[in-house]
Amino acid sequence: MSYLKMNDEDLLPVVVEMNILLADYHVYYQKLRSNHWNIVGRNFFDLHEKFESMYNDARVKIDEIAERILTLRYHPMSQMEDYLKSSTIKEKAVLKSDRAMVLETLNDHKLLLEQMGKVMEKANAATDEGTADLIGAYIRELEKTSWMLEAWTKKPSEVAHPEVVEVM
Fold this sequence. Notes:
The chain has helices at about 10-40, 45-70, 80-85, 100-125, 130-155. The longest helix is centred in the first third of the chain and has 31 residues, at about 10-40. It is globular. By secondary structure, it is mainly α.
């Protein structure tokens, strides 16, 4: 019995991109754990907690991505060696400043969003609404988290338009 109304051949490109996203999320997850463990300084409490929240979110997404691949009747990549080879996100030095951690995380977000865009493109081409819905929500959430992290990196004097714009 086929519960999917999509052709396996049409889904293969979606699965390929989803597996890369799965690899990206595994490396990203581990980098967040490293940041959580290695943060020091005045921002310790805030960033220690934020990185933990982010890696817990990534852990959930890892499972959801793998289960979506299984739902599409394929098998998810599941070996660290493959994740490290396939991921667009690369490991970096462990010990760095709080600001460097946040900036590197923002760069990882950029890479995740780019990969999510590739998944969306393939999902839309295959009329795979389930994957598009899942990834669309991830994009919205990651954009919001990125905005918050970017705001953390700024000084009040660096705000481009500090005035409130009123709509008439």
